[in-house]
C-alpha cells in the first residue's frame, strides 16, 4: 500500500537528491548546501501538501455551468487571503480593462504561494 505521505516523501527526497547532485557538481560549500537543502525541503513539503487537488478538474469546474457567475465573482477577494487581488500584475490589468471574472481563480489554480525577503531575487 502506497500512501500519500509516501508519495510526498518520495517527491521531497527526489528534489533533495537532485539538489545534492547539483551542489556537488558546482562545488557548493557544505554549509550552503545544507541551508539550501533545508529550504528546498521545506518549500517542497509546502508545495506537495498544497498540490492535493486535480488542477484540470478544478479548471473544468471553474469553467462549467455548475459554479454560478455570482459565486465565481466572489472568489477573487478570498484567493490567498486576498493577496492575489492585491498583486500588481492583476491591479495593472484591471486598471486597463475589466478582468474576466474567472481569470483570478484560473490563475490561482496554477500558482504556488511563496514568500521572499526584501531584495531577494524571485526570477531572472
Explain what you see.
It is a single chain. The chain is mainly alpha-helical and 124 residues long. Helix content is 65%, strand content 0%. The protein has seven helices and no strands. It has helices spanning 4-26, 30-50, 55-63, 69-74, 83-86, 88-96, 103-110. Helix 1 runs antiparallel to helix 2. The longest helix is centred in the N-terminal third of the chain and has 23 residues, at 4-26. The chain starts with a helix and ends in a 14-residue tail after the last helix.
Question: What can be said about this structure in brief?
Answer:
This protein is 65% helix and 0% strand. It is built from 7 helices and no strands.
Q: What is the H/E order?
A: HHHHHHH
**Sequence stretches where pLDDT stays below 50 over 5 or more residues:** none
For the sheet with most strands, the description reads: none
**How many strand elements?**
0
The percent range for helix content is 55-70%
Instruction: Report the end-to-end length measured between terminal Cα atoms.
Output: 42 Å
Query: What overall form do the CA principal axes indicate?
Result: flat
Radius of gyration using CA atoms only: 19 Å
Mean pLDDT metric: 82
Can you count the helices? 7
Structural class category: mainly alpha
Strand content: under 5%
Amino acid at each position: 500500500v502506497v500512501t500519500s505521505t509516501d508519495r510526498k516523501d518520495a517527491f521531497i527526497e527526489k528534489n533533495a537528491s537532485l539538489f545534492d547532485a547539483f551542489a556537488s557538481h558546482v562545488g557548493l560549500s557544505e554549509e550552503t548546501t545544507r541551508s539550501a537543502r533545508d529550504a528546498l525541503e521545506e518549500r517542497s513539503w509546502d508545495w506537495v501538501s498544497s498540490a492535493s487537488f486535480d488542477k484540470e478538474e478544478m479548471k473544468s469546474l471553474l469553467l462549467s455551468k455548475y459554479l454560478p457567475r455570482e459565486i465565481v465573482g466572489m472568489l477573487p477577494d478570498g484567493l490567498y487571503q486576498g493577496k492575489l487581488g492585491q498583486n500588481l500584475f492583476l491591479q495593472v490589468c484591471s486598471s486597463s480593462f475589466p478582468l474576466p471574472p474567472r481569470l483570478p481563480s484560473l490563475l490561482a489554480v496554477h500558482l504556488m504561494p511563496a514568500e521572499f525577503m526584501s531584495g531577494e531575487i524571485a526570477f531572472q
